[in-house]
Amino acid sequence: MQAVWISMALFALAGAISPGPVNVIASALGAAQGFVRALPHVVGATLSYCGVVWLMGSSLQMVLLAYPEIAQVTQYVGAAYLLYLAVRIARAQPSGPGAALLATSALDVWTQGLLQGALTQSLNPKAWLVALSGVSLFVPEGPDSTQRLLMFCAISGVVCFVSVSAWAALGKLIRRWLAHAPYQKLFNRLLAALLVFTVYSMLTQVA
Q1: Is the pLDDT at 142 greater than 70, yes or no?
Q2: Who wins on pLDDT, 80 or 162?
Q3: pLDDT in tens, 1-45
Q4: CA-to-CA distance for 152 and 177, rounded, in angstroms?
């Protein structure tokens, strides 16, 4: 059983730590607002991914296999939303060190962050593809399938939280460098370009 846990964790890490929409936005938030203010996004994305894995392991997997056009429409909707976020990041104006902290209350930060993280993850084609592959590998049909699915959800959640947090921390590390407005603009545009590239690569893999 320990070997199964390790395999699940390594698989989840390979999918979660690689560049993707959720991680790019986490890094942007960490750089603009600090690590603590990026945590709502991290938590929202993690909870959403656990939900995606659970859905894939229950009945949605069979539905998507039977009706692939549903998955295709969902992927294009997700791509459109992620491209919208890329435009917002690219057009973001440089701000002072304390501007983001004064703009919203802690409750607003958590509410908006949770919703943004959950929505970004749920509309992320990469999340659905990774979850589908993982469920196919680690949740075989049988009497212990529910237990295996719960285990995979838990491990995926922990790994997702750690991985997205690492990207948020990376943004925080370079925050001092981003105190200069030209550097901040460049960083935002690079992140936006990376987000567009990840969307393009995911769509071309699916097509």
Answers
A1: yes
A2: 162
A3: 567 888 899 999 988 988 788 998 999 888 888 899 899 999 999
A4: 39
**42 is written with which tokens?**
């991290």
Higher pLDDT, 67 or 89: 89
Q: Helices H, strands E: what count in the chain? A: 10, 0
Element (H, E) at 166: helix 145-173
Closest CA to 138 of 53, 42, 45: 53
Query: Residue 79 burial (CB < 10 Å; 0-12/13-18/19+)?
Result: buried
What percent helix, strand, coil does the chain show, rounded to 5? Answer: 85, 0, 15
Separation between Cα atoms, residue 163 and residue 169, nearest integer Å = 10
Half-sphere exposure of residue 204, counting CA atoms within 13 Å on the CB side? 6
Whether residue 190 contacts residue 177, with contact meaning beta carbons closer than 8 Å, is answered with no
What residues contact 49, with CB distance under 8 A and at least 6 apart?
Answer: 16, 121, 127, 131, 156, 157, 160
